[in-house]
Amino acid sequence: MDYQQYLRKWSASYKADLTDDIMAFWLKHGLDKKHGGIYTCLNRDGSLMDTTKSVWFQGRFGFIAAYAYNRIEKRQEWLDASKSCIDFIIQHCTDAHGRMYFEVTEDGTPLRMRRYLFSECFAAIAMSEYSIASGDKSYAERALELFRLILHYKNTHGLLEPKYLPSLQCQGHSLTMILINTASRIRAAIDTPELTEQIDRSLKELQTYFLHPEFKAVLETVGLHGEFIDTCNGRMINPGHCIETSWFILEEARQRGWDKELTALGLKILNWSWDWGWDKDFGGIINFCDCKNLPSQDYSQDMKFWWPQTETIIAMLYAYLATGEEEYLRRHQIISDWTYSHFPDHTFGEWYGYLHRDGTVAQPAKGNIFKGPFHIPRMMIMGYTLCQDILNKSK
């Protein structure tokens, strides 16, 4: 393989697909020019199916639009879209205690609050990225205040409703991993020791509790001290989450001058998760598997969702940047070829989100409360910059 030609090809493709397809689709069909923010419940052709707004996607697209402005091209419409989403969050999506809702109406009337802190995490990275793009430091300061609120709720017993009754004492991988990225993105705008301290805590928790070498896996749910819970939920592996975690770690390793221990940790998780997730019969990364190879409880266990594929594309580029090992570029080619031959909609634009195991489309909508403009454009922005970094490294 002529890796320079290969990377130049993908670099150009990522940039063109982001600007001409993904961002154009969502700015045309999703941006709410009356109330502010973004709609995500869009049918295949971009028509609106439901005016309910996902709060975490206000933060997600607020971040993406500013991230594209900072990394790809300084388009005013992207900066304006980011501010529209952030303003909508500030004006409509926060309760009296600072917690953020999960769903609101198009004009911001609250509909649902969940126990999770993900809406707050995505709002924080949107504010920090917009601060970098706009030069307005107040947004970074607001992001830091929000980060402190997240930690307050996470660490104060009784503030968040537990997922299970006291008879099951457990903890989940999701918040541990997302706080690595949340702190990292805020740190890019306003660097204070507490951000790196939280990254260190998350990394320690990840290694102490969630890594289970006996299964060569990162488990989604474990006991309070990392105990293996021998139930369907306790045995669950989410390869997409684990692969996303791996590149969060590799990104932090790079931040620390390619710290050897962190690099090794990120690569180990990536390799384990690729072995669990890659479908050798049909291709693509599956949703869930059982660490004892028992039948998975989740009905969508062998489906191919959009986001595990995009996270794998990012992770393989990061791994190649870290090591120069051709195996990671080979995997990048495998996952990219499969993803790009199944997910993009060449008729109406954007990508399908949900495929059956064999790669056929399960349902054609472009968005809902959970799918919208985040994983795909983030992959394209990062794919472009990582390809450029690899090419520049070789000069």
UniProtKB/TrEMBL annotation:
Taxonomy, superkingdom: Bacteria
Q: What class of enzyme is it?
A: isomerase
The yes or no answer to whether the keyword Isomerase is present is: yes
Q: What is its EC number?
A: 5.1.3.8
GO biological processes:
carbohydrate metabolic process
List, alphabetically, the InterPro entries matched: 6-hairpin_glycosidase_sf, 6hp_glycosidase-like_sf, AGE/CE
Gene3D superfamilies per record: 1.50.10.10
Identify a single GO molecular function assigned to this protein: N-acylglucosamine 2-epimerase activity
Provide this UniProt record's keywords sorted from A to Z: Isomerase
UniProt keyword annotation of Transmembrane helix present: no
Q: Tell me, what's a Pfam family for it? A: GlcNAc_2-epim
- Family from the record: Belongs to the N-acylglucosamine 2-epimerase family.
PANTHER family, per database record: N-ACYLGLUCOSAMINE-2-EPIMERASE
Q: In its UniProt entry, what is this protein called?
A: N-acylglucosamine 2-epimerase
Q: Which organism is it from?
A: Hoylesella oralis ATCC 33269
